[in-house]
Amino acid sequence: MDRNYILNLQFTTNEQTKIVCPRCGVGKLACVPKSIFMKASAEIDYVDPESCDFVVSGILACTFEECRYPISFAGIASTEPAYDQSPSGWSYHDTLTPKFFFPPLPIFQIPKNTPSTIAEELNLSFSSFFNDTLSAGAHARNAVERFLDENGVSGEINAKNGNKTKLKLHRRIEIFKASEESLAMRLMAVKWLGNEAAHGGVLLKKDILDVYEVLSFVIDDIYVHRSRAVRTGEISKAIECKSK
Ligand SMILES: [Zn+2]
After folding, report:
1. Ligand 1 center from residue 104 Cα (angstroms)
2. Which of 36, 120, 181, 202 has the most CB atoms in a 10 Å sphere around its CB?
3. What domain of life does the native source organism fall in (predicted)?
């Protein structure tokens, strides 16, 4: 998804967004007519409607006729004058700023064969992205923990007294580094930003987008590229056996 577009995501009720449908990947999302409900946060000033704040809810749906996948949203809205085809040449247009989507809007595409434990944390992160970046960062950090679970790095170790001791994320990434140096270096970057979230620091949307870019690369590398490498290797061997 376009980085600047998602950082400043706003849309109007009568135009298609640039958000590609997460289900079909063909259509774009657009407001469903008559699904939008707006209410002024205070008494409407009809002389100066631009001074009013509104809350809004509605449904976006895929523009591809055979899909029509719907996503609901809630957020805030403002109204501003804009040139149009009306008799006066202009009218007030509503600009909507979403704060929540359900189902969550995937900021990057999670590959289909990604383990559900990782996908669940990523979806929780996406669902917080527009309104609570610390929560989005904390869930992204959890996604790294689940990624290590799924890739053979235990979350605990046997202590000398026989008890199990929980390993910190930093240590787990170091263990992963022994076999996957390049990916581990990237996961460590996600961990640093995730620590900000865990300690109540400051995380901006652009920081979270950096995290998503890194995580998307790591996940694609394991669950798309290597998965295809294994599959095509098996196919090649099968073809070779047949031809002998
Ligand atoms: Zn669609």
Report:
1. 15
2. 36
3. Bacteria
